[in-house]
Amino acid sequence: MHVSLSNQLVLERLNMNYVQSLAKSPNLHYVPSIYGYAANSTEPPASDLQDAIPTIDFSLLTSADPDLRSKMIQELDMACKDWGFFRVVNHGVPESLMNMVLEKSKEFFDLTEEEKKEFEEKGRDFLKVIVHPEFNCPSKPLVLLEYSKRTREVTKGLLSGISAGLGLDHSYVERALKLDSGFQIFAANLYPPCPQPELAIGLPPHSDHGLLTLLINNGVSGLQIKHKGKWFNVNNDIPNSFLVNTTDQLQIFSNGKYKSVEHHAIVNNAVTRLSVVVANGPSLDAVVEPAYKLVTEEKCPPKYIPMKYMEYLEMQQGNQIGGKTCLDKIRA
């Protein structure tokens, strides 16, 4: 995810031709060159996963029963270490709220071009809004305010379990990275049908910059992840769940024990895909570095140099989205 650090509404600028409007054109039979994507021809096409992405039961992760909680912490640790992607069920966020967020996002994309003109300087076919520590969405819709709050609660619970899985105190990540003022972004992405999906890409391969990213969509598949060096399709097989991925700052904090995973979005020629993402990061002024308990000078020296999260974001903003190039720049 590529993000602007403006304290105002974040709606990044796209080309003057809406992708959505372009896709609706009756004379569209090929992908214009400005939207073309040259895939790596040496890589085989993505395949379906043979093993299911791990599923974390949030109700057990936060259970008062220490045995149930301990078992789920172990499963979460393995999911972060082996996959970097996992599904979260029984998370407590009402399904009605999740559906409403998808519906309101669709309503934004369904605005006429005339209605979208107020967003011309900031973007059109995807929407990014800073929702914490300050809520910067115009008209301050209650559904988005509530959704950002509830997803922060889920994120905090997951990071508590991750902290314990790393052998740290449950609240270590929360304190060290100042999660009370953590930087949170809401993003909605629209992927209309494409006449030549093999020549286009919804979003290029990249890793996310924060700690954990939570994703839902409208039931249309299109996400691919890189697992053990190969690309795999991620299907929508568990309703009312979040798909969560570990990201760059968590890889740094865990001193490489957990990996931020490359992923990208593909398009199809039949139906529109809508995804809603909430990216959760440390406080902008938090200095992110390998946790001291995970570092020993002889056996496990620090693999990354300390850097303020704000500085990392600014570095990422100055680079074209792609792979894990920013993370590679701060290796010790």
From TrEMBL:
Family matches, as PANTHER family: OXOGLUTARATE/IRON-DEPENDENT DIOXYGENASE
Keywords: Dioxygenase, Iron, Metal-binding, Oxidoreductase
Signal sequence bounds: none
Domain called Fe2OG dioxygenase: residue spans: 181-282
Name used for this protein in its record: Putative oxoglutarate/iron-dependent dioxygenase
Keyword RNA-binding carried by entry: no
Keyword Signal part of the UniProt annotation: no
GO molecular function: dioxygenase activity; metal ion binding; oxidoreductase activity, acting on paired donors, with incorporation or reduction of molecular oxygen
Source organism, top-level taxon: Eukaryota
Family, as annotated: Belongs to the iron/ascorbate-dependent oxidoreductase family.
Pfam families for this protein: 2OG-FeII_Oxy, DIOX_N
